[in-house]
Amino acid sequence: MSASRHSRFTPDRGLTGRMVTTMFLIGLVYVGFTGLLIVLLRGAWPLVVLISGGLFVAQFWFSDRITERAMGAHRVTPEQYPQLHGAVDRLCALADMPKPRVAVADNDMPNAFATGRNPQNAVICVTTGLLRRLEPEELEGVLAHELSHVAHRDVAVMTVAGFLGVLAGAMTRIALYGGMMGGGNRNSNDQNAAIAMVLVPLASMVVYAISFLLTRLLSRYRELAADRAAAQLTGRPAALASALTKVTGQIAAIPTKDLRQAQPYNAFYFAPALSAKEAASRLFSTHPSLEQRLAQLRKVSDELGQ
């Protein structure tokens, strides 16, 4: 789960350790939750396992297409966006990594994201709002940030970790329906259904809460790791800092309605879709504060200067 063997992005042991820990803990909770469903709803367990397993595999395998469609992105050719492709080409050559597919989302909110289960199946996307607002060096800083997510493989981890909490809710609905519709002794079924209707939703909420907190902790660290790796690769932390400041300020000015539509995907964005008022609350934020990110980039700048 560290940076790709063929990438020149700086490996981050702290990020690798956090990804392994997050996946282990969420996987442990998820297995326990599935076991609870099987015990409580014996008649429904084949349906639960089959559907939940199928959803999980589909989400992981098609994560790039699912995310692109959800965020309104479409893939673009070098002829359509020569400057964007040129910047990605230069950075991939500098990082010695395979070039991901390039996409653009027709959205005035300045932002970017990366998705995909591995570097060979990755997609890097920017919004038209970002392209309009950033200078070439600032854009390269943002693209390097997103490419570092691909190289470190934390995109796949976030995709899986975030989906498991949602999957727990889907499994709950499947299990309760299957358990109540199962055959056998009616009194026994009624009793099992009553117990299940209390315990299963409660367990589902616990799974979701644990997944939510663990992914938030991982997300904040991975953003700092991506900033650091991008600044070190390009050698221009000031350009990335300028892009961060500009993007964060512009996002705060986007209409609240548009921000709310984008907020479910905040964990994947370069900067969170938050208004100035919402940005003040950091307890459950997917990103570290702008001040933290800028302070780290100043530190990287000092290190490069030395």
TrEMBL record:
Reported cofactor(s): Zn(2+)
Regions crossing the membrane: 20-38, 44-62, 155-174, 194-214
- Where the record annotates domain Peptidase M48, the positions are 80-299
User: Which positions in this protein are listed as binding Zn(2+)?
Assistant: H145, H149, E223
Per the record, membrane topology reads:
Multi-pass membrane protein
Main enzyme class:
hydrolase
The protein's location, in the record's own words, is: Cell membrane
Q: EC number(s) on record?
A: 3.4.24.-
Q: Name one GO cellular component term.
A: plasma membrane
Annotated active site residues, numbered on this chain, are: E146
Keyword tags: Cell membrane, Hydrolase, Membrane, Metal-binding, Metalloprotease, Protease, Transmembrane, Transmembrane helix, Zinc
Which Gene Ontology molecular function entries are recorded, alphabetically?
metalloendopeptidase activity; zinc ion binding
One biological-process term from Gene Ontology?
proteolysis
Cofactor: record remark: Binds 1 zinc ion per subunit.
Q: Which Pfam families match?
A: Peptidase_M48 (PF01435)
Family designation: Belongs to the peptidase M48B family.
Write the protein's name.
Protease HtpX homolog
Lineage here is: Bacteria, Bacillati, Actinomycetota, Actinomycetes, Kitasatosporales
**Quick one: which gene encodes this?**
htpX
